[in-house]
Design brief:
alpha+beta, globular, 3 domains, two-stranded antiparallel sheet
């Protein structure tokens, strides 16, 4: 993500800031410029309706047809706000969701709400398990443009327990959003489009019975040698999941490299044996046409990131190995995304 600055005093601020710690100016995010801007008397902005719940700092024009910002217009179901503990979870969910929407806007991907276009729109349901009834567990997932997030995923302990139970090396709210929106964009960019044939060459035949594939995966696990062809064990389950997992990692890479770019980072190991980890100054990945150049920046950066984490006694921030087959899949995703961006995007008004 970009490095933001207060437009009143120039002090660095975070994406989620609602005021500047240096000059105390109120701040809000403008989707047109993709910048944090300070709110001063006489400007034509107001906060999104959800700002009152401390879950959104995005802006809408005064007199706009909707009181909700671009990101919050996509919400179809929010947690029960009479439960104080749910408000805290909703805050964590919205932080991740707003980062996702920032990236989709930056990539200029088609983005429209279900309220505006029921057939092709996107919507979010943030729902808690109903503990008063059997068989009422909420499953995080995607169905025809509706992304459901079980709000238990916003609880660090609950999410870590789920990660261990599922034998995963990585599980975050932002990761969930990026994976599930991958399913949405498969429907929008791949299904019934000319890209479907290349998709099948890389990911496999998506017409395979999904329910049977799911049953087999949970009964037998990933096949031997999966890490030579997939980004994760779960990606082996079905071509749709392979696409969604690879799509999520593509978004991880682009966003993290953008952050590195804005901080002027580069990797220059002083040990001669590790000279192959040289990157030069990292450039903005949103404007790199060739994905091979992106991956050449990513691999040294992740080695440095993981090394820094280990120095702090933390787990690797990126605990994955990207094999050649996954690189080819990401090249395809990069091509599809860039082609979609060349068409006027359907941004929410």
């Amino acid at each position: 993500m970009k490095l933001f600055n207060c437009t009143n005093c120039g002090h660095p601020v975070y994406f989620e800031n609602v005021f500047c710690l240096n000059c105390n100016a109120s701040l809000g995010f403008d989707v047109q410029s993709l910048q944090q801007i300070s709110l001063v008397a006489g400007n034509n902005w107001q906060y999104c309706f959800n700002h009152q719940f401390n879950v959104c700092n995005w802006l809408v024009p005064v007199g706009s047809a909707s009181v909700f910002c671009t990101a919050c217009q996509l919400n179809r179901t929010i947690p029960d706000l009479t439960r104080p503990e749910y408000l805290e979870k909703w805050n964590a969910i919205e932080i991740a969701k707003h980062r996702l929407i920032y990236q989709l806007l930056h990539l200029q991907l088609p983005l429209v709400s279900k309220e505006q276009n029921e057939a092709e729109g996107l919507a979010f349901d943030f729902i808690a398990d109903d503990k008063t009834a059997k068989e009422k567990k909420v499953f995080t997932g995607h169905d025809n443009g509706v992304i459901t997030i079980n709000i238990a995923e916003a609880d660090d302990i609950e999410r870590e327990m789920a990660r261990k139970q599922m034998d995963e090396v990585y599980r975050t709210l932002l990761g969930h959003f990026r994976h599930e929106v991958g399913h949405y964009y498969w429907d929008r960019l791949i299904a019934s489009k000319s890209h479907i044939y290349e998709f099948r060459n890389l990911f496999g035949d998506e017409s395979l019975d999904y329910a049977e594939a799911l049953k087999k995966y949970y009964a037998e696990g990933a096949p031997a040698g999966w890490n030579n062809h997939y980004i994760s064990a779960y990606a082996t389950m079905h071509p749709w999941e392979d696409w969604a997992e690879t799509w999520a990692h593509y978004l991880h890479i682009i966003d993290t490299l953008e952050t590195a770019y804005y901080f002027g980072l580069s990797v220059h190991p002083i040990n001669e044996a590790t000279q192959k980890l040289q990157t030069g100054t990292i450039t903005d990945p949103y404007y790199i046409r060739d994905f091979e150049s992106i991956i050449q920046l990513w691999l040294p950066l992740t080695f440095a990131m993981n090394s820094l984490n280990r120095s702090m006694g933390l787990k690797d921030s990126y605990p994955f190995m990207i094999n050649n087959a996954v690189v080819d899949k990401m090249k395809f995703i990069h091509k599809v995304v860039r082609e979609a961006a060349s068409v006027q995007p359907l941004h929410i008004n």
